[in-house]
Structures are given as structure tokens and as C-alpha cells.
Design a protein that fits this description.
The chain is an alpha/beta fold. It has 6 helices and 6 strands, in the order βαβαβαβαβαβα.
Length: 180
């Protein structure tokens, strides 16, 4: 039976950061890729990333509306809350074996919290980076919820291990964006 790997795409940046991984999952006969698109990725005003995903040959399993307009701390918090609600439903329906999440935005936090509460193992790319912004706090929180880690640099890998994550679960893979 194929393991179902769910990838949530919430923005153009998420997609470019995970596209090569999605291709690798599709090519592996032991894995099944599930793609959930939401937030700005499904809104034409932000470039219609969902259309690009489909044009690249990926099937989107579910599209979820969760984006609150305004690009402020208040709307980011509300979008996170809506994301948890909508992603939980998607996870319940799709029954992934693992959720692969990208980076450090509010969509990433929503994905992580929904998966954590539903006891679905979480894999995280791009953890351990330092930026000095709210994104850094989100990224480190996601790291603590995650079970498998795919950092982009040795410094990031070392930071993840210093955060208390098991060394054997931290795999230095580089930035998947470079594959593009």
C-alpha cells in the first residue's frame, strides 16, 4: 500500500520551494502525492498558483479558502485560524500518512497545528533558518511540532538539533528551490 504524502501549497513561494520534491514523490512507486492548495495560491489576484500547479501536471486533491484580506497581524492570525479549520477537514477526508510542510508562514503554522492535533506525522523543509522576524518564531515552532526535518544548510541543521530534535531525524538536503 502506498504511503500518502500530503503537501499543502499556500503561496507561490511555497510551490517553488517544494515543486522538485513533489516531482520526486510522484516518481516513487511506494508513495502517493496529495496536494492541497489554499490561501493566496488559489486566488487569481496573487498569480493563480493553483493553475500553475495543475499546468505542471500535478493533481490538486482539494482547494481550501482561508485567506483573510489585509496583510496585517490581525488578518494573518485569522487566516491561521481558518486554515486550521479547513485543513483539518481536508486531512480527515484525505487521510494522509504524513504531512510535508514548507517554511515559515502563517499557512505553515495552520498546516502544522491541524496535523499535530490529528496525530499525523509532520515533515518540515527549510527549518532552522534565522531571520529575526515573526517568520523565525513560526519556523522554530513548526520545527518543534515536526517529526522529520529537511534543513537547507549545515547551520540550520545544527540549530534544529540544538532545539532538541533527534539527530537521526534531521536530514541535510539543501534548498529544494535550487533544483528549479
Amino acid at each position: 500500500m502506498k504511503k500518502k504524502i500530503l503537501v499543502f501549497i499556500g503561496s507561490r513561494a511555497n510551490y517553488s520551494s517544494i515543486k522538485s520534491v513533489m516531482t520526486s514523490i510522484e516518481m516513487n512507486s511506494n508513495l502517493k502525492l496529495l496536494v492541497v492548495a489554499g490561501a493566496s495560491a488559489i486566488l487569481e489576484k496573487y498569480g493563480g498558483v493553483a493553475s500553475l500547479i495543475e499546468a505542471d501536471g500535478f493533481k490538486i486533491s482539494t482547494k481550501i479558502h482561508m485567506q483573510v484580506e489585509g496583510e496585517s497581524p490581525l488578518t494573518m492570525a485569522k487566516t491561521t485560524g481558518l486554515g486550521i479549520i479547513e485543513l483539518s477537514t481536508s486531512f480527515e477526508n484525505l487521510k494522509p500518512d504524513i504531512v510535508l510542510t514548507v517554511g515559515d508562514r502563517f499557512e505553515t503554522m495552520a498546516t502544522t497545528l491541524a496535523a499535530a492535533y490529528m496525530n499525523i506525522p509532520i515533515a518540515h523543509t527549510m527549518g532552522g533558518e534565522i531571520t529575526g522576524t515573526i517568520d523565525e518564531s513560526i519556523r522554530h515552532a513548526v520545527t518543534k511540532f515536526s517529526h522529520i526535518h529537511f534543513p537547507a544548510s549545515k547551520d540550520a541543521k545544527d540549530r534544529i538539533i540544538r532545539l532538541g530534535e533527534k539527530k537521526e531525524n534531521v536530514h541535510l538536503v539543501g534548498c529544494p528551490r535550487i533544483d528549479l
